[in-house]
Amino acid sequence: MDREELARIFYGEARVPPPWATDCPVRFDTWLSYAEQSGGDLGSVDVILAVNEEHGVRRVLDHLSRLKISSTLSNPIAAGSFVVAKLTLDELVRAVLPMTNLFGVVRLAKEIPESELLAAAEGPGAQSMSSPPTASEDGAERADERKRHLAWLLQLLVAVATSAGLRKRGPRPRTTSRGRLTAVRKVVGMLRNATAESAITQLPPSPGNPVIDRRRRYPVVTVTTNRLAGPAVSRSRQTVKADAAEAVFAVDCRTIGWAVVDSGIDAQHPAFAEWDTSITPPTQWPPRVVRAFKLVGARETLSADRTDNGLIDWTRALPFLEMPIPGLPVVAGSSAPKLAYETPIDPHGTHVAGVLGGHWPKRALRGICPTIRLYDFRVLDKTGQGDEFAIVMALQAIRHINEQAGRLAIAGVNLSLSVPHDVATHSCGWTPVCIECNRLVRSGVVVVTSAGNTGFSGGIRTMGTDYHIVSISDPGNTDSVITVGSTHRSDPHRHGVSYFSSRGPAADGRSKPDVLAPGEDIDGPVPGGGSPLCTARARRRRTSVVLPP
C-alpha cells in the first residue's frame, strides 16, 4: 500500500474529509509507517507521544508499565511532556488508543458483539453494528456518529494490518481475501483486548478547575513518528559586516555561551582554541568548547538509576551523557563526566561551529564570533543521521543547565538540522521539536535554525518549474525561532537566494525564512585536530543531504 492508497482510506474520497480524520490523535505518518512494516503487527515503529501536561508523563509511563509495555524493545522514556517508545500495532491499539480521544470508540468496540464487529471490519459501513446499552445516554444521533467513527477506524486498521502482513511477500503485494481475513481477525482481537478503563482518562478535579474540559481529559494528545533528522550547512564575515561590528562596537563574546546541536565539535581542533595574538607567533591556549554531551543513543545508555521510572532526571542523567573536554577541568559544581571523549567523525557540526566561532590565526580563519564559548550537543551519529527525540532531549538539557546555573549560561542555540515536515500530518510549527524550541525561546534563549535545502529538486537545466515554495523544514517552521535561508557568500544582493535554499512561506502562511545569510562556498574546519586536511570548503549547503521521512 502506497501513500495515496492509505490517504484515500484515511481522508476519504469526498471533498471534505470526515471530522475524525482531521482530529485523529494518531497522525497519518504514523499509520503509514505501520503499513510499511513487514510481518503484520510484529513490526514496531518508533513513535513520540505528546502528553497533556495536566495528566503528566508519569501517568502515561505507569500505564505502559502496568500493561507490560516496558521491554528492552519498546524502551519507553520520557523527556518533558514527550514519551518516546517503539510500539507494535497491537501495543498502539491496546495501550495507547484508550489514552487518546479515541477512548469512546475503543470502548464501543468492546461493548458490541464480536460478530458484528467482524462484519463491520470486513466491509465498509456501520449499519451492521447495533447500538450498545450505553448509547442511549448520548442520544441516537451521537450513537450513530460514534458507530460511523468506529467503522472508519476498523477500515483503517484493517488496511494497515493487511498491508504490513503482505509486505513480506514483495514491495507491492496483491491483496488476497485470505490475507484480508487474517488482518480483520487481528484487528478485532486488538480492539477487544484494549484496556479501555474510565480511570485512564479521569483526573481528580482541582479547586481552581472543578470540571475537566472533555477536550483536555485525555492523557495522550498526539502520536507521531520519531522523525529522522539530517544536517543542513571567510569572506562571508565581511558580507554580514561582522568585522565592522567588532571594530566599531568593541564586540567581545567571551562571556557568551552558544550551543551547537549537531554531529559534534572537534574540541581539540586549533580553530576552537583560545589564542593569544599579542605575541608572535600566536600562542594556543585551552579550547573554547567548554562542555560536550552525547545524546545519540541516550535511550539505551540511560539505565533505570539515571531516570525516574522512565522519566529523565536531568540532574542524575547529564553526567552519564557528558564527555570531558581534553585540556579543561570539570565545570565547578557539576559531577564528573562518565563518558570518554570522542572526536566526531561526521564533519557537519565542526564545520558549523567553525563558521560561528572558529578562530585559527595560523590559517587566517576567523568565524563570526571568534571568542565565543561553545557547547557541543551531539544528536547526529557518525553518518550524520539522528532522530527528532534526540533533538528534543538536547533542547531540554539546555534549559536544565540554565536553570541550574541561575542565568543564561547558554544564551543561544544553533540548529543547522532538517527534520522533514509532512503538511498532511502535522500542524505547521506544532511538531514536538517545534514545541520544544518555543519553550526554550520563552526561557530567554535565542534559537537559530536553518530553513532547509529543499528549495529545488530539478535537473541542471530548468524552466523554473522545479523550484519549490512552502519547502521549509522543521524546526525552521517554529514561529519563535530565527529561520535562516542561504545566499551567496560575498555578493548576496547580486545573486539572491541560493537555488537550493528552502523557500517560504510556511505551510500556514507565515513569512519564513526570517533572514538570509551566506551559505555557499564557506570555508570552515572539519575534524582532524590540526592535520593538513583539517579545513575544507562546503561547495554548497546542498552537499549536506536531507534525510527522507
Structure description:
Helices cover 30% and strands 18% of the residues. The chain is α/β, with parallel strands linked by helices. It folds into two domains: 3-225, no CATH class; 228-543, Rossmann fold (3-Layer(aba) Sandwich). An eight-stranded mixed beta sheet has the order 12-9-15-6-17-19-20-21, sandwiched between helices. Helix 6 (103-111) crosses helix 8 and helix 15 runs parallel beside helix 16 (432-442). It is elongated.
Present the secondary structure layout:
Blueprint: H1 3-11, H2 19-22, H3 28-35, E1 44-51, H4 57-66, E2 77-79, E3 82-88, H5 89-96, H6 103-111, H7 114-122, H8 140-166, H9 177-193, E4 220-225, E5 228-231, H10 235-239, H11 242-249, E6 257-262, E7 273-276, E8 283-287, E9 289-294, H12 298-301, E10 307-308, E11 311-312, H13 314-317, E12 322-323, H14 348-357, E13 359-360, E14 365-366, E15 373-378, E16 386-387, H15 388-405, E17 412-415, E18 417-418, H16 432-442, E19 446-450, E20 482-487, H17 492-495, E21 515-518, E22 520-525, E23 535-540
Parallel strand pairs: 6-15, 6-17, 9-15, 17-19, 19-20, 20-21
Antiparallel strand pairs: 1-3, 1-4, 2-3, 5-16, 5-18, 7-8, 9-12, 10-11, 13-14, 22-23
Helix pairs in contact: 3-8, 5-9, 6-8, 7-9, 8-9, 15-16
In short:
With 549 residues, this protein is an alpha/beta fold. The chain is built from 17 helices and 23 strands.
